Amino acid sequence: MNYFLAQLVNGITLGGMYALIALGYTMVYGVLLMINFAHSEMFMSGAYIGLGTLLLLSNAGTQNAICKVLPFLSFFKSLRSFFTGSTVGLIIMFIIILAVSAVLVGCLGMLTERFAYRPLRHAPRLAPLISALGVSIFLQNAFLLWIAPNKPFNLPAVVAKAAIVDLSGKNLSLGITPLRIIIVATSVILLIVLDLFIARTRVGKAMRATSQDQDAAGLMGINVNSVIALTFFIGPALGGIAGVFSGAYYGTVTYNMGFMPGIKSFTAAVIGGIGNLRGAMLGGFMLGLIESLSQAYISASYKDVITFVILIVILIFRPGGLLGSSVVEKV
Amino acid sequence: MKKNHRIVFGVMAALLTLALILTGCGSGGGSGSTTKTFNVGFGGPITQGDVAFGQGGLRAVQLAIANANKSQEAKDLKIQFKVIQGDDQSLADVGTTVANQFVSDKSMVGAVAHFNSTVSIAASKVYHENNFVQISYGSTNPALTQQGFKNVFRTCATDDLQGPTGANRATALGFKSVALIDDSSPYGQGLVAAFKDQFVKNGGTVVYQASTQQKQNDFTAVVTKIASVKPDLVYFGGTYAPDTGAGALLCKQLKSGGVTVPMMGGDGLYAPEFISGAGATAAEGSYATCPGMPVELLPNGKQFAADYTAMFPGQQPAPFDAYAYDAANAIINATYSVAKDLGVNKVTSPAGKDALIKAVAASNFDGVTGKVSFDSKGDPNNKVITLYKVVNGKWEAQADK
């Protein structure tokens, strides 16, 4: 039983990360009907930016060249010891890292949209797809050459330390760590906030309108360009947060780290019904659980085969995904 | 500092490529210099993949070439050597492209090529078709030299030795049960199979066996499984780097997943980057076998280490660097002997290529890894495997009991 629960915890954590990335795929698809293949690189950029912020804010980064040239270094020093010294400081630092990453990656997403997708908005649908692949390769190589192919990402010990859940004095050792709780909680909270934002606010309404018909939305006085730009801020920002989580959770960042999670999360978005936020979340958690449980009970070597066979079976019976409605193509 | 270094390196690489293209065009037209320059290819993961092994190997070949160019023998024969870099990125397809570039180079005498077994085996077909000397400095999968290719050599010992040695040492250390993991590469699977055979013969039991994928970063399900079967040892066949076998990540997740027993692996883990990638606390106590002896214990090793650090300040040679150095010298010595027999201008002719292969096969000199000579398959006659352990955050050689 413990073994099963521990594997559930593994799967839910993995699923939380997939869900966060899948939200980005699904948002962009919902508004533009375009698959943003550069999204996996938003995830990777988020991890690199998160690592950079960590090095800047923690004592681990004293050797860093950027820190040395900062004029307000002495102020930084006291700030750093606060961040690495106490649990509260660590939590605040982690929140700052997440925020910096989300904002910068969001901006990167907007830049990508402005320069790589907007000029192609009225081009045939394959053009922005190829453009997205180009952006993906460009970003991978930029980070590879600019920083390093891979770097260790070590959060200070307090955040990563294992909190063992005790029930009636017995050590269950399910491997529930603060970081895992943060990952799952963040993705669930962000989904709820996003869902409310799109359903209840004026901007959310504008987004829904744009997704239904861009031209009609423009005629109603909605600034389509800024709505799309906002979509390209939120989606990548979520990917960036997932990137920081992945870096902190696995303890490493790699220039091509986005590839596999990107494909899996895209799969998750499709399983859930692409374009549907709750579907992306459901798909993400499902995929994480399937992956972890198939490794636990069937075979670690065949986990990807099993995962994708299940995907195919789901799509055969529900071509629109679990929560998606199969929309008839309007001609 | 690191970032600046990268940028400078990038710009230099671009300039170098440009310079190579320009000189390549230029030398076709005008000759007339009496000294003949031969190229020696180096193929290994330089920008991506198992870069620690690729960059180290490249430095060693550069050192070997620099020493050769200063030698009296080269001056007498009016020969100079130049290194041509081929970045295979630990990928078989990229390695094959590198091999095609090498074999089409009319002044190349041979290549110190490829680190990863997958890459070496894929590229060896190209080298074989073109009758071109290939000496691998790090590919330990036995299959490489079992293809019957006369032109293929290696300076490092193979997995069929490394696996059993690892198993014998594990038994001697008192480990009775093992969980086996491989990274789905020919290297990792070969290593695990060889380890398993010997470990079972020694009376040990295999409690769990699984394969992970290349570039996998989530091992938590496998780790939880291992924690539940409670082996004495986790044996991992694979490499350390996160964009290949990700051994360092596995080690880190084993420790955070509550597996307290040590992890053992082959030469693919034996790099300082394994320790920094896993974190010093998680890596502590891990074992790795590696062909050859530690550089500092070898007769010629001290001089090699001193030259290496003098040429590349701040860098220490790793065992594979010593193999790359010996491989480069095997090619250099073969070039000398063919130049003496057939004349400098015939070295890269079809007859010269046959002679180069024969000369490498007949190698017999004191290298930095010991006596360098090859058996009929192209494997080294010098077969030593050393067990290393992470002690206080550093790899340390363990004496054989």
Short description:
The complex is a heterodimer of chains A (331) and B (401). With 331 residues, chain A is mostly helical. Chain A is built from 14 helices and 4 strands.
Please describe what this structure looks like.
The complex is a heterodimer of chains A (331) and B (401). By secondary structure, chain A is mainly alpha-helical. Chain A is built from 14 helices and four strands. Chain A is globular, with a radius of gyration of 21 Å. Chain B is an alpha/beta fold and 401 residues long. Chain B has 14 helices and 14 strands. The chains are: A mainly alpha (331), B alpha/beta (401). Chains A and B meet through helix 1, helix 6 and helix 13 of A and helix 1, helix 8, helix 9 and helix 10 of B.
Largest sheet of chain B: 7 strands, mixed
| Radius of gyration computed on alpha carbons of chain A | 21 Å
Strands of chain B, count: 14
Q: What is the arithmetic mean of pLDDT of chain B?
A: 87
Biggest β-sheet of chain A: count, sense, barrel?
2 strands, antiparallel
Give the overall form of chain B: elongated
Helix/strand order of chain A: HHHHHHEHEEHHHHEHHH
Weakly predicted, low-confidence segments of chain B: 22-32
Distance between termini of chain A?
A: 54 Å
Oligomer status: heterodimer
> What percent strand of chain A?
under 5%
